[in-house]
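User: My instructor asked us to take a sequence, write out its structure as tokens, and then describe one feature of it. I'm not sure where to start. Here is the sequence I was given:
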Amino acid sequence: MSPILDEPAVDPIRSYFSQLCVMLTGIASGVVEAPLHDADQTPAFHMGRRDGYHVVVAHLAASRSLREAADKCVAFGRGVEERADSHPYGPEWSQGFAQATMEAAADIAMYAATEYVPPVDKARLRAARTAARHLSPLNGMFPPRPMPPEGSRSHHEW
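Assistant: Let's start with the prediction itself. The structure tokens for your sequence are:
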């Protein structure tokens, strides 16, 4: 039998990582409390984790197997980690992104072996969903881009 046919369905683990994306939006915006082990991290770190989990969800959707998705997660995580000092979002965001993708690869491997999906706190997820609908966690996090000076407009630009 093909190893691909032996794998569990991708939807439960993809749904788990989608929920983590929402949860991290709530954490980065300050609406949901971060877990104790991440309580001292910055919003940029949490947004990096969230963006990392978005990439994980995309890899799960586009890969032929769970192993392929996990391998892509490791590659992306290492690539961002190696370029953290020069990344436009900064080293904290890069650290969060790399950590999320590397942990996700381990979670995907565990799921492939046991079909176990870690639980998500439903109350915190509900609060995070509200935050994701009503808040913009990046508002004020990055300096605004300078706008080009306004010149005189001609009738041709209309």
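For the description part of your assignment, you could build on this observation: The first helix runs from residue 3 to 6. Try explaining in your own words what that tells you about the chain.
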